[in-house]
Amino acid sequence: MMYNAHRQGGKHYYLDKGWKGFAFDHDLADGDCLVFHMTERAKFKVYIFRANPDYESDQTSDDSEDEE
């Protein structure tokens, strides 16, 4: 995903290109909650809390990279 900081009368930060791919890759569903923890200037660790408590594959966004 692309992280974008836009300044116009104040600071606005938002996720840009790649959001649909991220949501698909992490099997996001309506009601899931995401927490973005900034670890570097433009790098985040993402924690996913599932709306469905029976979901089997809870992991942070960078856990899958560590397994490869």
Automatic annotation (TrEMBL):
Compartment(s) of residence: Nucleus
GO MF annotations in UniProt: DNA binding
GO cellular component term, pick one: nucleus
Residue intervals of the TF-B3 domain: 1-52
Cited PROSITE patterns: B3 (PS50863)
Keyword set, alphabetical order: DNA-binding, Nucleus, Transcription, Transcription regulation
Keyword Oxidoreductase carried by entry: no
Main location: nucleus
PANTHER family: B3 DOMAIN-CONTAINING PROTEIN OS06G0194400, B3 DOMAIN-CONTAINING PROTEIN OS11G0197600-RELATED
Protein's recorded name: TF-B3 domain-containing protein
